[in-house]
């Protein structure tokens, strides 16, 4: 049976030689041809464990979808850590696997995503980090 956590863990298990693991959903539209390079760039900092790309609303998105993308994704890059919990609350662990990358060593150290989850596996992992 499909579930977001288990399915992604299976994909990671099949990518044996990657230091950075990238997830991209079928409906994500990359902003430009450098999007993946820009996402991976942040891993030059050894303290970075995960990165997610900004999502923009689709051209035909309804007002609620437009608001959700604008609310959840800053126009500026943000590095967050446990030190931000008091200020940002739950937004500290906001992460989206629609377009995301994880440092494999950290992903494996934390035993990957929860196996039986239909959503929020990305935020669950960010909270463990």
Task: Provide an overview of this structure.
Helix content is 35%, strand content 10%. It is of the alpha+beta class and 129 residues long. It has one domain (4-128). It has a three-stranded antiparallel beta sheet with strand order 1-3-2. It starts with a helix and ends with a helix. The model has no long low-confidence stretch (mean pLDDT 93).
Layout of helices and strands, plus pairs?
Blueprint: H1 4-13, E1 20-24, H2 35-41, E2 50-52, H3 63-72, H4 85-88, E3 99-103, H5 104-109, H6 121-128
Please give a handful of descriptors for the protein shown.
129 residues; alpha+beta; three-stranded antiparallel beta sheet; 3 strands; 35% helix; 10% strand; O antigen biosynthesis rhamnosyltransferase RfbN; Nucleotide-diphossugar_trans; transferase; transferase activity; Glyco_trans_2-like
Summarize, please.
InterPro entries: Glyco_trans_2-like (IPR001173), Nucleotide-diphossugar_trans (IPR029044). This protein has 6 helices and 3 strands.
Percentage of residues in DSSP E strands:
5-15%
**Global outline:** globular
Largest sheet, in brief, is:
3 strands, antiparallel
Mean pLDDT: 93
Total number of domains = 1
Radius of gyration: 15 Å
Identify the strand order in the major beta sheet. 1-3-2
Low-confidence blocks of residues: none
């Amino acid at each position: 049976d499909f579930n977001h956590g288990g399915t992604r863990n299976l994909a990671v298990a099949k990518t044996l030689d990657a230091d950075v693991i990238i997830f991209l959903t079928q409906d994500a539209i990359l902003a430009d041809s450098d999007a993946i390079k820009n996402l991976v760039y942040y891993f030059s900092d050894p303290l970075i464990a995960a990165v997610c790309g900004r999502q923009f609303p689709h051209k035909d998105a309804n007002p609620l979808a437009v608001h959700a993308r604008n609310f959840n994704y800053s126009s500026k890059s943000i590095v967050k850590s446990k030190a931000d919990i008091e200020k940002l609350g739950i937004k500290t662990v906001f992460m989206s696997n629609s377009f995301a990358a994880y440092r494999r060593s950290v992903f494996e150290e934390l035993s990957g995503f929860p196996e039986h989850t239909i959503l929020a596996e990305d935020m669950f992992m960010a909270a463990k980090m």
